[in-house]
């Protein structure tokens, strides 16, 4: 099993990025062995469509679950169609998030928890 965690850096000690579609990195982790792969999110700076493109990237990695702070509707729908569970409200380090996931502290959401384009930092 593999899970994807939105992250500020490509390693286990990185903080969980609260944004899914526009996070800088993902850490793909096997929660049983803690083996991981850090990947850059090439869609983070996209002008539009970042959520969909990022979700497609994650689907291509063969993960079964996503841990993140927030997930918008476009990304959520792509992940849901691929039968990938999405857990939001995740914070702390990637390693702490995976430990909490293994302990059953997160529940999969049934719909996006933020609106479209919420991660674009409009006006900043």
Model description:
The protein is an alpha/beta fold and 124 residues long. It has a single domain, classed as Nucleotidyltransferase, domain 5, CATH 3.30.420.130. Helices cover 23% and strands 17% of the residues. It has 3 helices and 5 strands; from the N terminus they run βββαβαβα. The protein has a 5-stranded mixed β-sheet with strand order 3-2-1-4-5, with helices on both faces. A hairpin with a 6-residue loop joins strand 2 and strand 3. Helix 1 packs parallel to helix 2. The protein is globular. The termini are far apart. The relative contact order is 0.22. The model has no long low-confidence stretch (mean pLDDT 93).
Helix and strand layout, with pairings?
Blueprint: E1 3-7, E2 25-29, E3 36-40, H1 50-60, E4 65-67, H2 73-81, E5 85-87, H3 94-102
Parallel strand pairs: 1-4, 4-5
Antiparallel strand pairs: 1-2, 2-3
Q: Roughly how many Å apart are the termini? A: 38 Å
> Count the strands?
5
- Unreliable parts: none
Helix/strand-derived category reads: alpha/beta
Q: Which CATH-level-2 architecture?
A: 2-Layer Sandwich
Major sheet: 5 strands, mixed
Q: Per DSSP, what share of the residues sits in E-state strands of 2 or more residues? A: 15-25%
Query: How much is the average pLDDT?
Result: 93
Number of domains: 1
Kindly identify the CATH topology.
Answer: Nucleotidyltransferase, domain 5
């Amino acid at each position: 099993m593999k899970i994807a965690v939105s992250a500020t850096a490509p390693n286990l000690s990185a903080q969980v990025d609260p944004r899914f579609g526009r996070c800088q990195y993902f850490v793909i982790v096997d929660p049983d062995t803690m083996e991981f792969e850090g990947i850059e999110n090439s869609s983070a700076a996209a002008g539009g469509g970042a959520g969909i493109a990022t979700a497609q990237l994650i689907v291509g990695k063969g993960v079964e679950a996503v841990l993140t702070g927030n997930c918008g509707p476009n990304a959520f729908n792509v992940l849901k169609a691929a039968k990938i569970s999405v857990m939001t409200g995740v914070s702390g380090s990637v390693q702490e998030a995976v430990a909490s996931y293994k302990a059953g502290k997160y529940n999969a959401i049934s719909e996006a928890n933020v609106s479209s384009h919420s991660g674009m930092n409009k006006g900043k």
